[in-house]
Amino acid sequence: MFFSSNPGSLCGISAAGERVAGGGLCMKQRQSALQWVICVSQPQKTSEMAANKSKGQSSLALHKVIMVGSGGVGKSALTLQFMYDEFVEDYEPTKADSYRKKVVLDGEEVQIDILDTAGQEDYAAIRDNYFRSGEGFLLVFSITEHESFTATAEFREQILRVKAEEDKIPLLVVGNKSDLEERRQVPVEEARSKAEEWGVQYVETSAKTRANVDKVFFDLMREIRTKKMSENKDKNGKKSSKNKKSFKERCCLL
Ligand SMILES: Nc1nc2c(ncn2[C@@H]2O[C@H](COP(=O)(O)OP(=O)(O)OP(=O)(O)O)[C@@H](O)[C@H]2O)c(=O)[nH]1
Ligand SMILES: [Mg+2]
Fold first, then answer.
1. pTM of the model
2. Using 50, 70 and 90 to split pLDDT, how confident is the model at 26?
């Protein structure tokens, strides 16, 4: 994969590794599903997005987030608002777009990979592969469309099925388009109680006003980090008990 080193620049790279596009927002530069668009954002104005150029990218922790939900709920709008502080009014259905950005998470510089998937049913068959690569999920619906809320249960089922061997999958339920209160079809209580039943957090966002946009991405990264830390602990624990055993095995009574 290729990542641009020019501040603020965006690059698209085809699956074959060739440069296919440069500059401008990805919404305007959709590639085929096989031509994943890799967009790199250099530090933006907010303090959370400072970058430390002296550190190599490879040494930074990388958290992989997948945007999931029905078509038109605002997955791309949320992603682009988080990446570039811009709200995209046009609706252009996504196939699959991928983004990477350096951010500061609780004082630690990390990288976030965001895979923005297709909500439209035409692309349902390719979702399994995308979901497999994710470490955490933003399960998005629109508060103005009850059907999109109902659909979250199916998306969650698919995630659980694909990641069946994993314990607790980092996931947040996101009710987007909170700026359209007058068109609300999903009561806060209904969404909150579903999230409680699933043991996850429920947050309402607006890609238009930017309300809670950073929160959902940062809270999810925290959940991913916590999971990785506990997995590492388990691994190290197992290793040290193995070492102890092999030491014992080498001893003999004199
Ligand atoms: N008012 C308002 N409109 C939004 C918001 N988020 C997205 N939209 C609009 O809703 C439409 C669909 O948004 P997208 O982000 O393209 O939806 P998507 O979930 O990526 O859809 P697919 O790519 O088909 O899965 C666009 O016209 C956006 O401008 C929001 O928070 N508030
Ligand atoms: Mg989209």
1. 0.79
2. very low
